[in-house]
Amino acid sequence: MIVFLFFSILQKWSVIGKLPYRVKTTLVGFWNGWLYFTSGQRDKGPDDPSPKKVIGDLWRTKLKLSRD
Questions:
Q1: How many domains does the chain have?
Q2: Is residue 7 part of a domain?
Q3: CA-to-CA distance for 66 and 68, rounded, in angstroms?
Q4: Residue 60 lies in a domain
């Protein structure tokens, strides 16, 4: 899974890293000033893409969007 960063002023995406495993069904949402990120299901490893455990983690950060 690749991790992207969006530069809102430039309206461009940049690759800033990647996770050491693949994840299915990544979800991102923005609501009431908060950016939420959760992930889905990991695979068994680099040589075996079959499903492993479901990840139940959720991260959030306050995000201020402005048009300066």
A1: 1
A2: no
A3: 6
A4: yes
Q: Name, in order, each residue with C-beta under 8 angstroms of 58's C-beta and a sequence gap of 6 or more.
A: 36, 37, 38
pLDDT at 68: 60
What distance in Å separates the CA atoms of residue 17 and residue 3, rounded to the nearest whole number?
A: 5
Residue corresponding to tokens 């609501």: 31
Q: Which domain holds residue 45?
A: 21-68
pLDDT one-digit tens code per residue, 4-61: 888 878 888 888 887 766 777 677 888 888 888 877 777 777 788 787 777 677 788 8
Question: Using CA atoms, how far apart are residues 34 and 48, in angstroms rounded to an integer?
Answer: 35
